Amino acid sequence: MADKLTAVKGMNDILPPDSARWEWLEDKVRTLMARSAYRMIRTPIVEPTALFVRGTGETTDIVEKEMYSFEDRLNGEQLTLRPENTPGVVRAAIQHNLTYDGGKRLYYMGPMFRHERPQRGRYRQFYQLGVEALGFSGPEVDAEIMLLASELFANLGLRNVRVELNSLGVPAERQAHRAALIAYFEQHRDLLDTDAQRRLLTNPLRILDTKNPAMQAMVQDAPQLLSYLGEASLKHLDTVQTLLTGCGVQWTVNPRLVRGLDYYSHTVFEFITDELGAQGTLCGGGRYDGLFELLGGKPTPAVGWGMGIERVLELIKEQGAELPALVADAYAVVPDAAALPVAMQTLQTLRRAGVQVQMHAGAGEGMGSMKSQLKKADGSGARFALIFGADELAQNLVTVKSLRDGSGVQTTQSLADVATWAPTLQSNA
């Protein structure tokens, strides 16, 4: 007997009924994005490794530790399973000259891959929803995409999600702050852990994001980037804050919020919950005006965010937010195989009319007894059973039995006029 094969650790199967919850969330996303004129973009799962080394940042944890990279056996090209999607979207925009006629509002949903220790809401293959607004420099678009995230959380029925934001300014301001940070951390080198010492001269801003408890007090007293921002950067941040407040979104400034990627500038933000333990960031993003040039394109302003779908679904479950009934409207009971042609034609008509209907399928040679089929109909959660019995079919009728209101009421409906009574089976009828 062959050894049983299982999925790779941290890469999970999504099975019914959980998969239906994913579809429900995805439908909410598509509706919201369409209302704000954001359009779907789909990019390859595999990209050149250089895209992430240059775009995500050579000294980030993602590039240094977490990427699934390999050599193409046909041509020796270095390839990587995408650990995030912003560089891929920008690569596509440059390659296809996407912003030649003005800015583009885009969104995506799909799998990402990071080689890290699997934990609650964080997996090696995880699914990310993201938006990218390309070609817009104004702070109003920073606020717009944050409002999209806030509205999505509201539409999903989630509570107690707070917004933290900061500004990373422009390159010259970050350089001045970087020099001050290095000088400060040099004075406290004895308190730096191995990771911080390695980053001291390559990416000192990332030290501010440390989770090491022994470094927290020292990091709290480090120079703040906000102190190095010029008038234009401060005005950009102030406008974002004013617009969010005007739209009813509460926020706080976190001067230590730096995000984990090298391409950010100006606004950075996170949507955070305290109900998922250490993995509390549901959505994070910001402005990345320099990424197009970094990847070989023309200077193009851009802003976006990414959201972990698993974490959002986990929070929905944690908070007990209401989910739709994941069941069919009706279950077709077919006591005799001779009734199958009529039953299947009827079900096709019902489905075209928008009714969700499941047909009983036989086991072995028989269809199963009427009693066993009605038991399955009840167990399916459907609101009605449609009974295609011989007596009914002889009169060109079908029996409709109520399964959920406790009445067990049965009526008969004409098979010659299915479209007329089909709406009465739907859950919103």
Automatic annotation (TrEMBL):
Pfam families: HGTP_anticodon (PF03129), tRNA-synt_His (PF13393). InterPro entries: aa-tRNA-synth_II, aa-tRNA-synth_II/BPL/LPL, Anticodon-bd, Anticodon-bd_dom_sf, His-tRNA-ligase, HisRS-like_core, HisRS/HisZ. Residues 30-335 form the Aminoacyl-transfer RNA synthetases class-II family profile domain. It catalyses: tRNA(His) + L-histidine + ATP = L-histidyl-tRNA(His) + AMP + diphosphate + H(+). CDD domains: HisRS-like_core. The keyword Ligase applies. The keyword Methyltransferase does not apply. GO terms for molecular function: histidine-tRNA ligase activity. It is found in: Cytoplasm. It is an enzyme of class 6 (ligase). Its EC number is 6.1.1.21. Keywords: Aminoacyl-tRNA synthetase, ATP-binding, Cytoplasm, Ligase, Nucleotide-binding, Protein biosynthesis. Belongs to the class-II aminoacyl-tRNA synthetase family. Homodimer. This is Histidine--tRNA ligase. It comes from Rhodoferax ferrireducens. The gene is hisS.
